[in-house]
Amino acid sequence: MTQPLAERLAGRGRRLVATLIDMLLVPALSVLLIMTTGVVEHAEAYRNAMWMVYVFLLAVVSYLILNGYWLYTRGQTVGKRVMKVAIVETASGERAALWKLVFIRALFFPLLFVVISPVLAWLPIVDQVFVFGKSRRCVHDFAAGTSVIRV
Questions:
Q1: Residue 12 is part of which domain span?
Q2: FRET partner for 42 with CA separation of 20 to 30 A, picked from 65, 80, 136, 139?
Q3: Which of the given ranges, 22-26, 80-84, 109-113, has the highest pLDDT on average?
Q4: What is the pLDDT of residue 117?
Q5: What is the value of pTM for the model shown?
Q6: Residue 149 belongs to what H/E stretch?
Q7: Cross-strand partners of 89
Q8: Which residue has the higher pLDDT, 1 or 59?
Q9: Cα 146 → chain centroid
Q10: Is the CA virtual torsion 101, 104, 110, 115 positive or negative?
Q11: What's the chain's average pLDDT?
């Protein structure tokens, strides 16, 4: 018999370290892709706002390159894999559907980087502070119906 989900929940520290790992790796790959594609290499690139769209798309590609396979096969980002935690459906304890991981949970990942904007700095704090509740779920976990467990 498997343990109840509440007994398998990942610790807050593991989740924090996993997030920090992802916060370092994804932007690093994004910068590498931006530099190799030359999206913002020339002054003409800044004449309109399309360069921001390209940078955003390269960031999404970076996220999927680093995490797509592990999310699909094990419900883990690179950081979660290193920290031995995984994302599961809260209701069933089974691996979460890929569409929830990419189209709901991953939408919150860019919030971690708006801290540099004083007007928006409260957004990632609100998302992350929920992890201190009894269920150890962030806002993005509630939105996707997921929990993070030890594996």
A1: 5-150
A2: 65
A3: 80-84
A4: 67
A5: 0.85
A6: strand 146-150
A7: 146
A8: 59
A9: 13
A10: negative
A11: 88
Q: What is the torsional sign of CA 32, 30, 63, 109?
A: positive
Q: Which long-range contacts (CB under 8 A, 24 or more apart) does 20-26 make?
A: 20/79, 21/78, 21/79, 21/82, 21/83, 22/66, 22/67, 22/77, 22/78, 22/79, 22/80, 22/109, 23/112, 23/113, 25/66, 25/78, 25/79, 26/59, 26/62, 26/63, 26/66, 26/67, 26/109
The predicted pLDDT at position 111 comes to 74
Name the domain count of the chain: 1
Q: How confident is the model at residue 136 (pLDDT cuts 50, 70, 90)?
A: very high
pLDDT at residue number 41:
80
Q: In this structure, what DSSP letter does residue 151 have? A: -
Q: Cα dihedral angle (75, 27, 82, 88), rounded to 10 degrees? A: -20
Please state, in angstroms and rounded to a whole number, the distance separating the CA atoms of residues 79 and 81.
5
Question: Six-digit token pair at 19?
Answer: 């997030």
Helix and strand numbers, DSSP H then E, in the chain = 7, 2
Length of the chain: 151
Tokens 């269920």, residue located: 135
